[in-house]
Design goal:
By secondary structure, this protein is an alpha+beta fold. About 30% of the residues lie in helices and about 35% in strands. The chain has a 6-stranded mixed beta sheet, sandwiched between helices. Strands 13-12-11-14-20 form a 5-stranded antiparallel beta sheet, with no helix packed on it. The structure holds adenosine-5'-triphosphate. It holds the Pfam family ABC_tran.
């Protein structure tokens, strides 16, 4: 196993922003890490690249427990590199930016040149070798940062939202680079993204995070909550702020399943007078045969399965805020 984590926690200001009981990642695979803002993706990537230590729990790298003592991390950091969302380059040439890490590792000058050229070839940036990094676009900066990481011959590369701040043509280039790093160099890859479609194209496997916990897209729309009465309707109160209409006998704690086909995205103008309308931001979109799955953060991750025609009529994108209506008939107590 490349990584295993057990009871991993990262706590900031008394709050667990990451809380993973178990997670295992295999060598030689491409993993896509998905989740809404603040779900813990960057925190997990920083722990897996040995840049941040966990508050509790154990990380096993190649089946050995990792000691996060600073003086023991250097060899691991040479094998695992993280390419940041907004990479910082030194204000000098592309060549010197890549050369820096190689000099530290005392690699002779002639060899350095070969490595730098090969790394820039891999990201299609050889012609920029002498360019000053000030003149690079966001996409080109990302590619140089990938070349810089690659020059250190890593076994594992982690990417934090590699395409979030680049244009469409750079997105395609970065996608191809990541694919080639995996197939040609055999590098294990973990990347985070908000884009389920992109992750589905590129990753062998997807990992979903929600509020620091692993969340399975298979057991979707299953929530614990307490039944309460509001007016003439009973609701299940989930996560202390989400009301889902439910047919229940007693005002008790229950586990509910919300059928994603029964959930509707409605126009906001019609929504104002309905108490059970949920407002949320779309963080995942995926095409499934004749359907499109929309996952929105309404305080909980709520999955909505739409017919393709319904989806086309709605024209919603990742990041859009939408109004969602759950119907009592689509909610069962399990
Ligand atoms: N150094 C820190 N100090 C305090 N809180 C932090 C720190 N780093 C992260 N957090 C908090 O931890 C939570 C998870 O943050 P993280 O950056 O890992 O999420 P994310 O899924 O990568 O989000 P995004 O998609 O917005 O990048 C957030 O609530 C964030 O505010």
């Amino acid at each position: 196993m490349l990584y295993s984590v057990r009871n991993l926690k990262k706590i900031y200001n008394g709050r667990a922003v990451l809380d993973l009981e178990r997670l295992s990642l295999e060598k030689g695979k491409v993993y896509g890490l998905l989740g809404p803002n603040g779900s813990g993706k960057t925190t997990l990537l920083h722990i897996l690249s040995f840049l941040t230590s966990p508050s509790a729990g154990t990380v096993f790298y190649e089946d050995k427990p990792v000691s996060f003592a600073e003086n023991l991390l250097q060899p691991l950091r040479r094998e695992v590199v993280l390419v940041d969302q907004h990479p910082i380059l030194f204000s000098t040439s592309v060549y010197k930016n890549i050369e820096f890490g190689l000099k530290i590792r005392k690699i002779p000058k002639q060899e350095r040149k070969k490595i730098i050229e090969a790394s820039l070839d891999m990201v299609g940036m050889r012609e920029f070798m002498s360019a000053d990094n000030h003149h690079l676009s966001g996409g080109e900066t990302q590619r140089v940062a990938i070349a810089r990481a690659l020059a250190c011959s890593p076994k594992v590369m982690l990417f934090d939202e590699p395409t979030s701040s680049v244009d469409v043509s750079s997105q395609i280039a970065i996608e191809n680079i990541i694919r080639n790093l995996h197939t040609e160099k055999g590098i294990s890859i973990i990347f985070s993204t908000h884009d389920l479609l992109w992750a589905s194209k590129l990753a062998d496997e997807k990992i979903f995070l929600f509020e620091g916990h692993l969340s399975s897209s298979v057991y979707e729309n299953i929530f614990n909550g307490k039944v309460l009465v509001k007016g003439e309707q009973k609701y299940c109160l989930v996560n202390e702020n989400v009301l889902i209409p439910v047919k229940a006998d007693a005002e008790d704690w229950v586990k509910i399943a919300v059928n994603p086909k029964s959930v509707k995205i409605v126009a906001s103008k019609k929504a104002d007078d309905h108490a059970e309308i949920l407002k949320g931001r779309i963080f995942q979109l995926t095409e499934e045969r004749e359907k499109v799955r929309v996952v929105a953060d309404v305080g909980i991750p709520l999955s909505v399965l739409l017919k393709k025609k319904e989806y086309i009529d709605l024209r919603v994108c990742i990041g859009d805020t939408v109004m969602i209506k759950c119907f009592e008939h689509g909610v069962s107590i399990i």
